[in-house]
Design goal:
- This protein has a domain of 183 residues.
- A hairpin with a 2-residue loop joins strand 5 and strand 6.
- The longest helix is centred in the last third of the chain and has 26 residues.
- It has a seven-stranded parallel β-sheet, with helices on one face.
- 46% of the residues lie in helices and 14% in strands.
- The chain is of the alpha/beta class.
- It contains twelve helices and eleven strands.
């Protein structure tokens, strides 16, 4: 059965809902997902965005941890070059304790030029910074004294999970894939070629290969009238796709997003699936078991009432099918 995720980035353009209402809804939705048996809540990070993109995922995750009991909380991802890894290690250790060991950590090097300027970090240094800061995180979580950049450091308390929370790395290049193989538990990518590079480096290092996980589209809606739902959601979907597409173009990064002016060609890419209830079984068959089915109910400031309607439709039309498949 695919893993069920809710995704939050709290992006909110001018035409979106009230910012406070979105944060209130995100906490309520996290609690709902926990009760419905979802596997994970995924929380993202970006900085200096006019649309209010979430800059502090650890803070939001802590609030969600207090409202939930069993669902995992995935930082996906923390842009590590912008942060002091000692403080990050401390905050994540406390979050792991608060959540009773439900934390997953994905770190990444970043790619948006404006963000690097904001934090006075050079793009050319991000590979080196990733290596030194990942090492610092792992040293910090031992609870033992160590030296970081000439500073004596000891981080307490230790995380609840031992030796530390699952530590993954995102990336979009072969050097990143090889770095992940050397330093972390998993390479977080939708690119099978890069994941093969990750596994090849793992095997070279004497480590076993790891199965590829389909990350999915990061979006899924089931609706009785997909055409009407697409028309209503088009401004939100286009805004998200164009925002990521602009960032990727400015950094020459290879990614799945493009800047587009028309919703219909974007719909045809399949990146934002909105399907009928009668299509759910075939969609799940195509998705497979080693995949993620990720819902994005507050996409680009979508009104919480619409997000709740989509979640309730998912509970009505998809969750029973998933439970039946699990029993077979």
């Amino acid at each position: 059965m695919p893993k069920l995720l809710l995704r939050f980035d709290m992006r909110n353009p001018d035409f979106g809902a009230d910012q406070r209402a979105l944060y209130d809804a995100a906490l309520d939705m996290a609690e709902w997902a926990d009760q419905q048996g979802f596997d994970c809540i995924q929380i993202s990070e970006h900085h200096g965005c006019e649309d209010g993109y979430l800059p502090s995922p650890i803070v939001l995750a802590a609030a969600m941890a207090a409202r939930t009991k069993r669902i995992r909380l995935r930082m996906a991802l923390i842009i590590l070059p912008f942060h002091d890894p000692v403080r990050v290690a401390e905050d994540l250790a406390v979050l792991d304790i608060i959540s009773n060991g439900r934390l997953d950590v994905v770190v990444g090097a970043g790619y948006v030029p404006e963000e690097f300027a904001m934090f006075a970090v050079e793009l050319k240094d991000r590979g080196r910074l990733m290596e030194s800061k990942i090492t610092a995180l792992k040293n910090a979580w031992t609870g033992e004294p160590f030296t970081y950049e000439g500073r004596p450091v000891r981080v307490t308390p230790r995380p609840l999970q031992k030796p530390h929370p699952p530590l993954w790395m995102g990336g979009s290049s072969k050097p990143a894939a090889r770095r992940a193989a050397r330093m972390v538990d998993y390479f977080y990518t939708e690119n099978r070629e890069l994941f093969a590079e990750f596994n090849a480096e793992r095997q070279r290092l004497g480590k076993s290969a790891i199965p590829f996980m389909e990350l999915g589209s990061g979006f899924f809606v089931v609706a009785e009238n997909p055409d009407a739902e697409w028309q209503r959601m088009a401004p939100h979907i286009l805004f998200e796709c164009n925002s990521y597409g602009k960032w990727q173009a400015s950094s020459a990064m290879q990614g799945q997003y493009l800047e587009m002016t028309d919703a219909e060609p974007l719909r045809q890419t399949g990146l934002y699936p909105i399907i009928r209830p009668t299509e759910v079984d075939s969609y799940l068959d195509a998705l497979g078991d080693n995949a993620q089915l990720c819902l994005h109910p507050l996409i680009a400031g979508q009104a919480p009432a619409d997000g709740w309607r989509q979640l309730n439709d998912f509970a009505t039309h998809v969750l029973p099918r998933l439970k039946t498949r699990e029993q077979v």
